[in-house]
Amino acid sequence: MRLFTSRHHERSAEARRLYARYEIAHTIIDYLAALCFLNGSILSFQPDLAGPSSWFFLFGSLFFLAKPTIRLAREIQFFQIGDVEELAKRAP
């Protein structure tokens, strides 16, 4: 079983639920990152709000960093599920 194969989530009901949970988390993180960058951009127009603006940009960047981490965690979990199924097929 290879990582980042688009049809992993079609293998079973458990895989579909797992895929849905990760997609919801990814969408929430995406939305939070966009909100942080929007707030940071709006606050950056006021020079006296440069500090809070920078914090919003930092948090937005951290959310963007979380996105590929979530994808990788999902793929690793799919890989582990695949390994278990393969081992079960080989068992006597």
List the keywords.
single chain; 92 residues; mainly alpha; 2 helices; 0% strand; elongated
Please explain how this structure is put together.
Keywords: Membrane, Transmembrane, Transmembrane helix. Pfam families: YrhK. By secondary structure, the protein is mainly α. It has one domain (12-90). It is 78% helix and 0% strand. The chain contains two helices and no strands. The protein is elongated and about 55 Å long.
What is the mean predicted local confidence, pLDDT? 83
DSSP strand content: under 5%
Total individual domains:
1
* Helix/sheet category: mainly alpha
From the alpha-carbon coordinates, what is the Rg to the nearest angstrom?
19 Å
Short synopsis of the structure:
By secondary structure, the chain is an all-alpha fold. The chain has helices spanning 13-43, 50-90. Helix 1 packs antiparallel against helix 2.
Give the SSE map:
Layout: H1 13-43, H2 50-90
Helix pairs in contact: 1-2
